[in-house]
Amino acid sequence: MQSVAVARAVPEVHTQVAAPASRRAAAADRVILAAVLAIPAAVTLFGLPYYVLDRAARVRHPAHAWLRPSGLVGLAFGLAGFALFLFMWLYPLRKKCRWLAFTGAVGQWLRAHVLAGLALPLLVAVHAGWRFEGLIGLGYAALLLVCASGILGRYLYVRIPRSQGGLELTLDEVANERRSLITRIAASTGLDPAAVEKALATDPQSYAGLDPARTLLRMVADDWTRWREMRQLGRRWARPRPGAAPLDRRALAGALKLARREMALSQQARMLEATRRVFGYWHVAHRPVAVTALLAVLVHVIVAMAVGVVRIG
Predict the structure, then answer these.
(1) Do 131 and 32 lie in a common domain?
(2) Considering the chain, what percentage of its residues have pLDDT values greater than 70?
């Protein structure tokens, strides 16, 4: 792989690469997800004495009229889950229809799509009264499978370098961004750019010839290696250097943030073709799973309306 620090004659281009996992966006997502899950979690805790009973004993429990699937609380969670599930299908529509660009960037829609998918199983579990039998059990299994598939898709998606608008970057744009990061790290730490590049060098092991399963395992192993190397790098940069003042906490945190981004870009560039290939396989597998879950949900809603559990008008 060509050295990033060597080709300094190439003009520096700022591509505004979206970080593999922006700390600010990730923190906001955690807050939103926690807020959404707090209500079904509180209902589950409150109704635990009811949920641990068998079907016959539940009928005599005082909370049965509220917590059963057709009760006020259970039905409310069912309707909320159904609305959230339908909302998730707006994301593929946003990807295909360019005229919907005014609704927000594809990356923002993906974040909302993932958050909805993570919140949905708990909402549906409360609606089902934490009992999964017959058609409900099959539908819930399909829902869990599509959510797990979505998490895998998100994992692959963030390993493809993208701009702030969600567009995939070329390898030249990635190289330019890495040069910029190394220059900024060198300026903030006082180290030589070549020393910075050497310190941030990642395992050059190729992904060529790996099947999808081994590619995923290699990705996870590389993520773990990068996390471990970042901890070691933080300890090294925190030590005083001969003839130089030690970095304060703020400067060290800033340098490590840039270093984390540069190492992630290096790994992404090295495994880009393999990631694209596995992502393509994932798309082929995810769609039928998602459609199966959609059909199961629609059948459940139609049956509920047919037997009079849910009435329109």
Answers:
(1) yes
(2) 87
